[in-house]
Amino acid sequence: MPTLADPGITASLLRWHVDAGVDLALDDHPHDRFAESRVQSSQRAALERDIPREEGEHRRLPTTTEQPRRPAPAPAAQRAASIAPLEAAETARALAASARTLDELRAVLEKFEGCALRSTATRLVFADGNPGAPLMLVGEAPGGDEDRQGKPFVGRAGRLLDKMLLAIGLDRSQVYIANIIPWRPPGNRTPTPQETAICLPFIQRQIELAAPRLLVTLGAPSTQTLLGVKDGIMRSRGRWTPCTIAGLTIPTMPILHPAYLLRQPSHKRLAWRDLLAVKKALEAS
To answer: What span, in angstroms and rounded, lies between the C-alpha atoms of 18 and 21?
Structure first.
């Protein structure tokens, strides 16, 4: 019978994991989360048994000489999961507003535990390029290459984006690039609405602090999130739309995402039209 010692079986198993989106090892050994959950449930049950109950099912409060038993601290992912999305979003707004510079904002994000994506990502993907540039580009979320390097748009889609910028005479030193979500979702899955809402105050503050003259949203998710529209990218692209953040109104051009153009190269002609409009607006600003 074939075993994992068979190279063919091992290669097939690895391909199966990659096809399923599992392309990054987060630890040296696998974790049985179901077993861990059962242990935690047993610990909670034991704690409940150790605390006697009085009439009316109220717990007896410890006396001044007793030390209350406390469960072991939860991992970062469990702490994030225990925070209600609305509470996490409110905390994010307060923390984002407290950052006076982009460096402070990055430091705040490095410590923020309100989004569970932080615990599954390798590192924070904050930004790339020149924060003082007149043009800022915003995508949705990092992928595997971005997660490993800590910079947005460095994979295949990023290389195409570099060529798109070069076509209108720009490179990364002349633009500022970021994402709505600064951590890679596991397996490159689509961020949930809750994750987007929690991270939104940070990208809004990042845009406010960078204060670009023009903004480009890459793809439908970033366009819908920042502009508050529901239209698909095919209806949104090619039209300047105002994006207002903290009293700052920035002309915004939605364009097709480079990853989409890799799948649909015939639509590069549409992206070229939009890029020419961006170039014209930059020259006039």
So the answer is: 5
Q: What is the pLDDT of residues 203-244, one digit of tens each?
A: 999 999 999 999 999 999 999 999 999 999 999 999 999 999
Strands (E) across 101-247 are located at 128-129, 135-139, 175-179, 214-218, 241-245
On whether the CB atoms of residues 135 and 212 are closer than 8 A, the answer is yes
Direct distance between the N- and C-terminal alpha carbons of the chain, in angstroms, rounded to an integer: 70
Nearest residue to 161 via CA among 252, 258, 253, 256: 258
CA gap 126, 112 in Å, rounded = 13
- CA 57, 62, 67, 73 dihedral sign is positive
Q: Give the number of domains in the chain.
A: 1
CATH number of the structural domain spanning residue 139: 3.40.470.10
Maximum CA extent, the chain: 78
Residue 29 falls inside a structural domain: no
The token duo for 91 is 């905390």
Note the pTM of the prediction, 2 decimals. Answer: 0.74
Q: Is residue 60 part of a domain?
A: no
Cβ(203)–Cβ(125) below 8 Å: no
Instruction: Let me know if residue 210 belongs to a domain.
Output: yes
Task: Quote the domain boundaries for residue 193.
Answer: 77-284
